[in-house]
Amino acid sequence: MKERLLYIGADVNSKAPVAYLRKKGYDVSQCRGLRPSLRALAQYQHHAVIIDLGDVSMINARRISRKAGRRPEKPFTLLLISHRSQQLDELLYDDTLTRPFTSRKLELLLRKYLDRRRKLVMQVGPLTLDQRTHVVKTPQGLVRLTRKQFQLLEFFMQHANQMVTRRDLMMAVWETDYLGDTRTLDVHIRWLREQIEADPSHPHHLITERGQGYCLKITDAPKCGGDPLLVES
Question: Do 90 and 174 share a structural domain?
Answer without folding.
Answer: no
